[in-house]
Amino acid sequence: MALKTWSDWLELHVNPNNTKLFFVSMSPIHERAQEWGGVEGQNCYGETEQIFEEGYRGSGTDPKMMRVVENTLDDLKKRGLNVRMLNITQLSDYRKEAHPSIYRKQWEPLTEKLKANPSSYADCDHWCLPGVPDVWNELLYAYILRQ
Question: Please, which residues bridge with residue 101 across strands?
């Protein structure tokens, strides 16, 4: 429903003759270390290497969601709007070490028990370390220069 609203808005408000449109796909999560051979019950906290298994896809990455996005972009193309997808999902799925932070805002004060186990409140959804977003920006910049 959100993508339908977004695509309708684009069709009404964007002039495709003077605007390049990009859609950045979703960022994956790394909450289940056992998916990449880590300890069950752990997450990305403390990880220092990326995942090297070609084609790795974590359980938090839903291929059906990606197909919904692709179908929406195909529909937009039929309506005269060419939106390029910058698929960061697969690229980012490999980077379990790039966002393990314990410095996010805590809505409730941490108990002593939680403080003793940082992986229990690590932020495995947001990118905290440089590198991954820089790669996305470099890819986008390179694409634009090619045009």
Answer: 123
* Structural domains in the chain (count): 1
Intervals of the chain under pLDDT 70: 100, 126-133
How many CA atoms are closer than 13 Å to the CA of 118, on its beta-carbon side? 11
What pLDDT shows up at residue 82? 92
Rounded Cα distance between 28 and 30, Å, is: 7
* Torsion (CA) 9, 12, 18, 23 in degrees, nearest 10: 20
**C-alpha to C-alpha distance for 145 and 129, rounded to whole angstroms:** 26
Structure tokens at 4: 């339908």
Residue 123 phi/psi, 5-degree rounding, is -95, 105
Give the tokens for residue 95: 């980077």
pTM (two decimals): 0.68
Mean pLDDT score across all residues of the chain: 85
Its domain, for residue 96, covers: 1-145
Q: How many CB atoms lie within 10 A of CB 6?
A: 14
Could you read off the pLDDT of 94-127 as tens digits, one per residue? 888 887 678 777 888 888 998 888 888 887 776 6
